[in-house]
Amino acid sequence: MAKREINPMLKTALELGPVLAFFVAYLLLKDRVFEIGGRDYEGFIVVTAGFVPVMIAATGVLWALTGHLSRMQVVTVVLIVVFGGLSVWLNDERFFKMKPTLIYLIFGGVLGFGLLRGQSYLRFVMEGLMPLEDEGWMILTKRVTIFFLGLALANEVVWRTMSTETWVYFKTFGLTAALFLFFMFQGGLFRRYGTGEDEA
């Protein structure tokens, strides 16, 4: 299927909408306990059970509209299904909380493996978004690798030492803000190593 462009606002809604829906649903149901099939499920587990199909549906719509999904999006959805499913099946919220750790470890590990081979795998994913010289891509990839590993560590510290509610806020806003700020602070690198090429 050929890759197609869609309205940026719609793309953002499909990517971030499920996460925001999870956050709102959690705030509404966090203090409730539901009896389903003779077992008690806390609000977090019920919200997780709803989030998994919503995320699958949103990703499916994005694929249908654009004809393309990045490897990062595919891996993320797979891990959401696996660890969200385990949390619901075993009635244990810890599995879902581990998901961001594994996502960032996988991405950081893949980028680090590429660096060991003298390659920037990040370039294959993002080259169309910001043309850089070879040296710039290598520097950015090293920084992103360290950043992802740092996010994995941060997620582990938060979910293991703080409340579920604190983790939900951290996951929804903290990780998103960290990604935004990280790339904002790469402005100097983009200016120094940018090729100035425009995509045709």
Short description:
The chain is mainly alpha-helical and 200 residues long. Helix content is 76%, strand content 4%. A hairpin with a 2-residue loop joins strand 1 (33-36) and strand 2 (39-42).
Description:
The two termini are 20 Å apart. With 200 residues, this protein is mainly α. It has helices at 8-29, 43-66, 71-90, 94-116, 121-126, 134-161, 164-184, 187-193, and strands spanning 33-36, 39-42. The chain contains eight helices and two strands. Strand 1 and strand 2 (39-42) form a beta hairpin. The protein folds into two domains: 1-88, no CATH class; 93-195. It has a two-stranded antiparallel sheet. The chain is globular, with a radius of gyration of 19 Å. Helix 1 packs antiparallel against helix 2, helix 2 (43-66) packs antiparallel against helix 3 (71-90) and helix 4 runs antiparallel to helix 6 (134-161).
**Number of domains as seen in the coordinates:** 2
Q: What would the average pLDDT be, to the nearest integer?
A: 90
User: What is the helix content?
Assistant: over 70%
Q: Would you list the SSEs in sequence order as H and E?
A: HEEHHHHHHH
Rg (C-alpha, Å): 19 Å
Transmembrane segments: 12-29, 41-65, 72-90, 102-124, 136-154, 166-185
Protein name: Inner membrane-spanning protein YciB
Membrane topology: Multi-pass membrane protein
Keywords: Cell inner membrane, Cell membrane, Membrane, Transmembrane, Transmembrane helix
